[in-house]
Amino acid sequence: MATRIPAEERLTNLVVALMATEIGLTKQQILDNVSGYRQRADAGTRSDALEKMFERDKDELRTLGVPIETIGDAADPNDLREARYRIPQAEYDLPSDIEFSPAELAVLRLAGSVWSAESVSGDAQSGVRKIRALGIDGDEPIIGFAPRITARDAAFAPLQDAIERCRVVTFEYLKPGEDAPRRRRIRPLALLDYEARWHVFGVDVDVDEDRTFLLSRIVGDVKVTSTPFDSALRDGAGERALAGLERVAAENSALLEVTPGTEAALRLGRRATSAAQGIRVAFVDLHILADELASYGPEVRVVEPEALREAVIARLRVVVDTHTDREGTR
């Protein structure tokens, strides 16, 4: 039986293959030769399923900032039957005029070590070693190959496996304000990193509706069942999930007063817009934002909405109570 290549390694192999060609590779050349597709073809996976997998992988890499170029027939650019794909190295490499100080390189090396050791599987690390074998110094961080470096929740790996295998999953999910977790049964269709937190998007089997769940609120283990679902459901799922989260964020914003020059100003300012009284920050989940704002202490004050202000105050009171002894002294 052919060895199953994890999605991380398949994507890495695809990047390497598309960077290594000047004239580009056809879809069939990719499916026949790139590790991850080839094993599935040898195992008898239908060609149309492999082509859909390639299209999803191509879209995912593009969302990560990888500039995959499609080269069609010059006489008929809309005819993509014999299209070739490549990654122009000049567009993917760091600009030649960018230089890093020793301190900056140290931080990048540290980030690279965290990425390779904690954030991806051993199979993906093997793929990274293959990239280094192309001639990149093994002691230097492969900056271009890590567009996103994010620590993952324990639920990530089983959910990713279920998505690959098109299997229904069950898990216990605890929402804010509820005393006990509730059992959820979903068809997982996509994992996405939004506002530095991982979410799983899928169809809730019990209500037959799309739902998005925050991985950090999954309690206990994710169980991958033997119940299959149609792989066609995954098509465009990532885009639908992202659009849904962005719609929620567009409908919710917080007006904040932030002390200039502080960590809060730096972190919140990256995703804020200026307002007459401070800054406005869009958010998806009030409780998650309240956790973040409370961590900044006196560096930030919530002007509105009132529910967010009360949530932050409640968290700060818990901190004060925790550090106050029975006599009321601190």
Question: Can you put this structure into words, describing what you see?
Answer:
By secondary structure, the chain is of the alpha+beta class. The protein folds into three domains: 7-145, no CATH class; 156-248, Roll (SH3 type barrels), CATH 2.30.30; 252-322, no CATH class. It contains twelve helices and twelve strands. The protein has helices at 7-19, 27-33, 38-42, 47-63, 89-92, 102-119, 122-132, 156-165, 237-251, 263-269, 286-295, 306-322, and strands at residues 25-26, 69-71, 84-86, 167-173, 182-194, 197-204, 209-214, 218-228, 253-258, 272-275, 278-282, 300-304. The strands form three sheets. Strands 7-6-5-4-8 form a five-stranded antiparallel sheet. A four-stranded antiparallel sheet has the order 10-11-9-12. It has a three-stranded antiparallel sheet with strand order 1-3-2. A hairpin with an 8-residue loop joins β4 and β5 (182-194). α11 (286-295) crosses α12 (306-322). The chain is globular, with a radius of gyration of 23 Å. The relative contact order is 0.08. The model is unreliable at 113-151 (pLDDT under 50).
